Please model this.
Amino acid sequence: MRFSVLASGSNGNAVYIEDGETKILLDAGISGKQLQTRLQFACTQEISNLTAILVTHEHDDHVRGLAQVCKKSQAPIYMTEGTYANLPDKARLEDESRFQVVREEESFTIGDIQITPFAVSHDAEQPVAYRFDTPDASLAVVTDLGYVSDRQKELLQNCDAYVFESNHDTDMLRAGRYPWHLKRRILGDKGHLSNVDAGYALIDILPESPVEVYLAHLSADNNLPDLAELTVEQIVIDARPRLAEVLTLKRTSRQEATTLTEISRARV
Model:
């Protein structure tokens, strides 16, 4: 399995995942033009080649380019009924027959990838995160949630890579320019994970084997990449020192895609 985080942040999110001939786009939160450019640059792929499009929830930074992508691709589009019912007008599907319902914790298969959606706590209608499994690799993409439940930690065990939210530094957010109602939303149970939240959640999730964690959805106003990485690393390694030898933290960006990365337990 290979993947690239094409965009990550409050202004747009998208992840590309492939395994053999199966090519999946998770969220389309940047313009169709930007998606095509980043797919070509990082993955040497075209939107028209997509096998499937998955959506986590209906917020603009996850569906901004959905309509444009759907015009260039004939792939089916997977999301929960709640997300579909609450899509903004500009993201609505012209051909509703392409809509495929996903339900929390009901796994389905696209090509050789088994996909498991699971509920997350966010201020959207029926939002989900996704886990992707093949016979030799596992990836989880977990963003846009106010906390990580024990059940979610169970579902996230034993992946080879995680794209995991580390949205804000709480002190920066509290002291920053955002109005209080927005600060309260971000800090709430249906908001976003802080760097500290991410670190403590990962303590209970990460395997003892080599694992890559891509810190995602970093706030441009209330976080710094160095701070996010340092905070998460310190919390995880202090609690589980042996992870220092196997954990690799990586960064995602609003402006550019990450390198197309192969994950496989056979590499270890």
About this structure: The mean pLDDT is 96. The CA atoms of residues 49 and 179 lie 43 Å apart. The domain at 2-267 is CATH 3.60.15.10 (Metallo-beta-lactamase; Chain A).
